[in-house]
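Okay, is this right?
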Amino acid sequence: MQTTEEESPIADIRHSPQRKAAIVSGKGTDYAGDVYIVPISNFDLNKTIFSTVEGALPRMVMEAKIAKEVRWNDDVQARIDADYERVGQRVDLPSLDAALISFMEKECDFSMEHADGSFLEHLYFCYEYSFHHFPSYSPKVMFLHSILGTATNTFAMKAVQIPDLAVFLDDFELLHISAFPSIFRLIGTWRLLEELTANLSRLDRLSSISFFRVIDNEPMRMKAEDLWIHLNYQLMHYVDFLPTANWSFHASDPLLQSFRALSVFLDRAEKRMAKVDCMFPQAGHFFSRPQKETLSFGGHVSSVIPAFLKRRLSEKALRRFSAKINHDLSYQLHFD
């Protein structure tokens, strides 16, 4: 019997207030003062996509980042819920192919938790956000962006299953889904954005970029016009990694640094297409404290690590992850 969307795990997905607000507004918001944040006790990092993170300090910092319970001000949550319901009444979200959902449920492994809830909740948020705020291009890319690998070497399916996945996709969708894990790593290791920024004056002459697919190290090539589209997909993806509150305190977070760098580049290159609004704060004073947020021991340790060092450690971790699976992180920009 074929699985319908209503019978699948998707039917049980309930967005957090932060995700609902982002879908409604098309922006990331710092909810300092509107939430109270406390550490989650007995949190098991090994049940998440970050289980493969190595080293006592990196694991402590990662757990401090994601092992948080967010308690919302009742009035703020009620307003967000009402706004989200109005959007749902105004625009119907298209149903996903039931056969695709069945393939994901029966042939893939999405059992690992994400930074906030289940992996499917993360994917469905990205799909819904993309549908509303990047309407010119397929939101299915965002629903399947991690199916061929995450930044921490967890894989929902095997490379030999790519032809089975391709049945549900057009050429555009397959290209961007195949490229997503690779471009995410290239952004996180910084050289790509730095090189693109250094070539702002001749980006009109960029014809393509070549790189290697994460899951099997197969070479890929993407035309420049697809690269600009793809970087907008990546920008939307970062929205789900933004801290719920106290951005100035958490400004050193490597994902927040990467998100800011990508956002700034797309504006400078005049390539921003998706609606992803954001007010970036200045980093807080060294002795500042987050508002209504209780830090774990790891959170206190993380707060004294300088931004440049966190960026360097994150970059090294990505390179180690790629090295472990013989993934080549090199790439080449091709100019006419």
